[in-house]
Q: What sequence folds into this?
C-alpha cells in the first residue's frame, strides 16, 4: 500500500508500506514490514531523488543462492539534461543485508552515465560503475568496476 504526495509542483514524496509472511515447509513462519520512502525534487533541467528502503527478499537463482535476506538501503541520484540531446546522471547506494546464514554485508555502489541522442532513432550511452561488498565473511568480499558503451537503435 502506498501514496505519492506533491508537496509543491517541484517536490514529490512517496511512502509505500507492505507486509510479508514466510511459511516454509518444516520451518517456523516469520513476517515483517517492507517499506520504501522517498523524495524527488525537480528543477528546470535537474532532478534529485533520495529514498530509503527496507524489507526482505528471497534469492535462490544466482551463484550464491543466499535465500531469505533482510535489507536496509539508501539510494541517492541526480539526473541532469545538459541539452536536448545530452543527459547526465550519477547515483549511489549503500545497503545492509542480513542473511539467514548469519552472514552480514555492507553493499555499496556508485554509477555515472552520459547519454547522447545521435539521431532521432539512435543513441549512445557511456556508463561507469563501481560496486563493492564488505562482508563479515572475509572470503566473500569483492569489488567490481565496469565501463559500458551502449549503442541503441529504436525503430
A:
Amino acid at each position: 500500500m502506498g501514496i505519492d504526495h506533491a508537496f509543491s509542483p517541484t517536490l514529490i514524496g512517496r511512502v509505500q508500506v507492505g507486509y510479508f509472511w514466510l511459511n516454509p515447509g518444516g520451518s517456523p513462519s516469520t513476517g515483517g514490514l517492507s517499506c520504501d520512502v522517498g523524495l524527488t525534487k525537480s528543477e528546470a533541467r535537474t532532478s534529485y531523488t533520495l529514498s530509503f528502503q527496507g524489507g526482505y527478499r528471497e534469492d535462490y537463482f544466482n551463484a550464491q543462492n543466499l535465500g531469505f535476506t533482510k535489507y536496509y538501503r539508501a539510494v541517492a541520484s541526480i539526473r541532469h539534461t545538459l541539452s536536448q540531446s545530452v543527459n547526465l546522471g550519477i547515483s549511489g547506494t549503500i545497503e545492509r543485508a542480513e542473511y539467514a546464514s548469519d552472514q552480514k554485508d555492507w553493499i555499496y555502489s556508485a554509477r555515472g552515465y552520459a547519454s547522447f541522442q545521435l539521431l532521432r532513432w539512435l543513441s549512445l550511452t557511456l556508463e561507469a560503475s563501481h560496486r563493492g561488498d564488505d562482508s563479515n565473511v572475509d572470503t566473500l568480499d569483492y569489488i567490481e568496476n565496469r565501463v559500458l558503451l551502449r549503442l541503441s537503435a529504436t525503430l
The chain has one domain: 44-153.
